[in-house]
TrEMBL record, chains A, B:
<feature type="domain" description="HTH gntR-type">
    <location>
        <begin position="10"/>
        <end position="78"/>
    </location>
</feature>
<keyword id="KW-0238">DNA-binding</keyword>
<dbReference type="InterPro" id="IPR011663">
    <property type="entry name" value="UTRA"/>
</dbReference>
<keyword id="KW-0805">Transcription regulation</keyword>
<dbReference type="Pfam" id="PF00392">
    <property type="entry name" value="GntR"/>
</dbReference>
<dbReference type="InterPro" id="IPR050679">
    <property type="entry name" value="Bact_HTH_transcr_reg"/>
</dbReference>
<dbReference type="InterPro" id="IPR000524">
    <property type="entry name" value="Tscrpt_reg_HTH_GntR"/>
</dbReference>
<dbReference type="Pfam" id="PF07702">
    <property type="entry name" value="UTRA"/>
</dbReference>
<keyword id="KW-0804">Transcription</keyword>
<protein>
    <submittedName>
        <fullName>GntR family transcriptional regulator</fullName>
    </submittedName>
</protein>
<dbReference type="InterPro" id="IPR028978">
    <property type="entry name" value="Chorismate_lyase_/UTRA_dom_sf"/>
</dbReference>
<dbReference type="InterPro" id="IPR036388">
    <property type="entry name" value="WH-like_DNA-bd_sf"/>
</dbReference>
<dbReference type="InterPro" id="IPR036390">
    <property type="entry name" value="WH_DNA-bd_sf"/>
</dbReference>
Length: 242, 242
DNA sequence: CAGTGGTCTAGACCACCAT
DNA sequence: TGGTGGTCTAGACCACTGC
């Protein structure tokens, strides 16, 4: 019995998609959890299975959920090996894998105008700044500096990061419930400052790839600003254009 | 004792997708043309409309076809304004738009080992090399060098390019029937060589963003190798991570 | 107005996974 | 074996476009 649909601004599958995102943002299902089956969700939202399926298609394409045939639909976690390099596009020319992390510092300060604007904070709101190096084959190749609103990452210290073996995004997810969903990056070539040169073991003025990233959690909320300096002598930033 | 599982053939919608790509590669529909309606295609392939629709969903997501509600489904063309910057991710910090093109040279030579490998040619097969500059606000910001197999671009000369007002990819499409579908890029920061420095009006050694692109036409056939040097002082390469 | 893609429903069967 | 997502079908109605 096809019910006559009332006029609505967004299609039903889009409304359902947004409801699921809202539920994820509210923590109804955490990373690693299975979502209810598509049939159960169809019941919950009063839609047909095909419509819920369409919503899940969109969410799977955005990597907001992950399907496993026969098992169910799950909330992806940055702890999974597959997610390891989802936001780090720097690959070795010879396809070597993996980095080792070296924490340089973690301190609390007031948001600069730039950080405040990017993260949607009031100026001089408390912010946590993290600096670190990534090494490949014993050589530093990435110098990362990143800023987080303290109110979302209360208790983040050098200690906490040192104890955590995985990626930062995996830590943010398990410890602070902040799951990164997508990011925007601006790339430039810049000359190494004396400080960056020393840390990356290159000469001052050496060309470095500057990667400025704004990362978003559910609902397009910006939660991290990051500035990376990549030494691209035997590594490159890989991109795919469609 | 488990019975040997026969290899499952690709799903019907995937087979249909490939048949449509093959028809596009064969030139059955040219850029700007409308494809047959989904109902007509369903008839042609002996599938239900929903299955054909699924195939078109995939093709639309890859930008291999473009849907216009109420009008039909079309082959996109690089001549359309929307496609103008599909493969050029360099944007001005102040969002200014547009470039002016300056052709530096176009000559015929034999494929280097690197070009041959990238384009799948025999070494020393004839290749066309194009060099040009892109200017923004009267200032050079991109130095492009690109290589094409001559057998796919016979008759491409400086004259032909000078007469054509649009982008290179629009020219390739209308004049040579080669439509670019996707590309892979490798980015690095490099120091300007004396020659590049002079052309881009910067000091030798200045950091430049090196963008090496391999562009593909239908069926993942590589047809263009390109090396761009971007001056990223008041422009940046924009990327989106999902 | 006719024709197109866009949405939504309903249900059958298959492939895969855990138990 | 039961439950899950994956495929495929069939058809209704809506929204938009162009004549």
């Amino acid at each position: 019995m096809p019910p006559s649909k009332p006029r609505s601004p967004a299609p039903l599958y889009e409304q359902i998609r947004q409801l699921i995102v809202a539920a994820l943002a509210a923590g109804e299902w955490r990373p690693g959890d299975a979502l209810p089956s598509e049939a159960a969700l169809a019941q919950r939202f009063g839609a047909s299975p095909g419509t819920v399926r369409r919503a899940m298609d969109e969410l799977a394409a955005e990597h907001i959920v992950e399907r496993r045939q026969g098992s169910g639909t799950f909330v992806p976690t940055h702890a999974a090996p597959r997610q390891q390099f989802r936001f780090l596009r720097l690959v070795a020319d010879d396809e070597a894998e993996g980095f080792t992390r070296e924490l340089l510092g973690c301190r609390r300060l007031r948001a600069s105008a730039e950080v405040a604007r990017a993260l949607g904070l009031r100026t001089s709101e408390p912010v946590i700044e993290v600096r670190r190096l990534l090494h490949r084959r014993g050589r530093p190749v990435v110098l990362d500096e990143l800023w987080l609103a303290e109110r979302h990452f209360e208790g983040l210290t050098a200690e906490v990061m040192a104890r955590h073996p995985g990626t930062l995004y995996a830590l943010f997810e398990t410890r602070f419930g902040v799951h990164m969903v997508r990011a925007e990056e601006k790339l430039r070539a810049v000359a190494a400052t004396p400080e960056a040169a020393q840390l990356l073991q290159v000469s001052p003025g050496e060309p470095l790839l500057s990667v400025e990233r704004l990362a978003f959690t559910y609902g397009d909320r910006p939660v991290e600003l990051r500035r990376g300096l990549y030494y691209t002598s035997s590594d490159h930033y890989r991109n795919e254009l469609n």
